[in-house]
Amino acid sequence: MVEESERRARMVLACVTEPGDPRLRTLLADYTPGEVLESVRRTRAVSAWSRRLAAFDPARVLALAERHRLRFVVPGDDEWPEALHDLDRADPVQDSGGAPLGLWLRGRDRLADVVPRAVAIVGSRASTAYGERVAIDLAAGVAAHGITVVSGGAYGIDAAAHRGALAQHGRTIAVLAGGLDDYYPRGNATLLGEVAERGLLVSEAAPGEHPTRRRFLTRNRLIAAMSAGTVIVEAGVRSGARNTVTWATSCGRVVMAVPGPVGNATSFTPHRLIREGEAVLVTTDAEVREMIAPAGEAMVVKPARRRLLDELGHEEKAIYEALPARGERDTGELALRAGLTVPAALPALEGLRARGLVVPAKGGGWALGAVQDRPVGAAKHEHGRPHGERHDSDQPALARGDESG
Question: CA-CA distances (angstroms) from residue 402 to 304, 339, 351, 366?
């Protein structure tokens, strides 16, 4: 149980310092939050913190929190996810790092309950229709299996990921860079309101605080740390999503990337991550689930599909192999080439004809049918097409069938 004095000290420090300030990480390694706060009160060694503390109005913050039904959780609370402590062990990124002093939450879900099975889906704000469709499908797919979708609530891929999870009635967390009393971006206010009602909003920023460029970058470390893995769907050369990937790597999380159209600016970062071995290529929610699950627990095993030629008996395969690529052959010649007697060749030919693999030719012989080697159940008997147009080479029929399909 966290003492109220420590909770208060953490809340005040979180309000007068910037998220991810490396100086805090150093101080909290040796001193309690209360001792750090008292030091800020007594000295002006850290002038910016002291000035903010002098102007800080805790009553206003608490009033905003109560009005918007926010709660402040800290390390030691039952709702605090252990995964965030990895940030204290992770290497700094762009001069920031360390676990948060505390988090403001809005929503019905308990953070510690939804984080253990979570995946981050992030990407460009200037997304394409392709990228948004992929993000929605991935989010809906993992959400259907009870996995929480974490993202940043921004336009583009983030919003698509949240929508995909909500459409599946799954869990989703939006980590914001500003206070939870005033949603940003404003254009996503309706979506973020729905996330608050059905999932969870998270922020290091106290109510009343506005997002800044630095806060967008430092909130990315929370997205990465709260997730077992991060999927980057689309991102250009300069993208905040790339920063999230760096944090995921620093925290020892799995990094995945979805390939996009070659030449699209939004494909640049995913393709580079894949090429340089920084990310695993994924295209389906099953592949994402495989990557974040304990080893071997959710392996993607594609069942082998039997093909039409696999269903043929020995005599039927021999006759089919003896058919010419073009033109026709009579029954006697086919039997000779197949090493069969004519009486044995006739039922084999009938079986092939029933499957559409051979057709009677105009000259009285037999020619290749329109149906070739396809997965069982997908083959359709196609008749009436000139058999001379079906193949471009004179290779054996079974070899041709293996290449068609």
Answer: 15, 22, 19, 20
Residue 38 pLDDT more than 70? yes
Q: How far apart are CA 247 and CA 241, in angstroms?
A: 10
Domain residue limits at 313: 308-403
**pLDDT value of position 284:** 95
- Would you report the helix, strand and coil content of the chain in percent, each value rounded to 5? 45, 10, 40
Question: How far apart, in whole angstroms, are the C-alpha atoms of residue 311 and residue 373?
Answer: 10
Cα end-to-end distance, the chain, whole Å: 64
Rounded Cα distance between 133 and 143, Å, is 15
Q: pLDDT per residue over 264-315, tens digit each?
A: 999 999 999 999 999 999 999 999 999 998 755 555 555 556 666 777 888 8
Q: Residue with structure tokens 């010419």?
A: 324
Tell me the longest C-alpha to C-alpha distance in the chain: 107
Report the CATH number that the domain containing residue 352 is assigned in CATH.
1.10.10.10
222 shares a domain with 342: no
Distance CA 162, CA 173 (A): 8
Give the span between the Cα atoms of 364 and 331, in whole angstroms.
9
Query: pLDDT digit string (tens) for 9-31?
Result: 999 999 999 999 988 888 998 89
pLDDT mean over 86-102 = 92
